[in-house]
Amino acid sequence: MSKCEQCIVRQFSSFKALSKEELQKLAVCKTSYSIKKGEIIFEEGESINGVYCIKDGICKLSKLSANGKDHIVKLVKSGDLLGQRSMISEEPANLTAVALENMEVCFIPKQEIMHYFNINNAFSMQMMKTICDDLKDADDHMVAMAQKTVKERLIDTLLYLESTFGTDENGFLQLQLSRDELAGMIGTATESCIRLLSELNKNELIELSNKKIKIVNASKLKRSVM
Question: pTM for the complete prediction?
Answer without folding.
Answer: 0.83
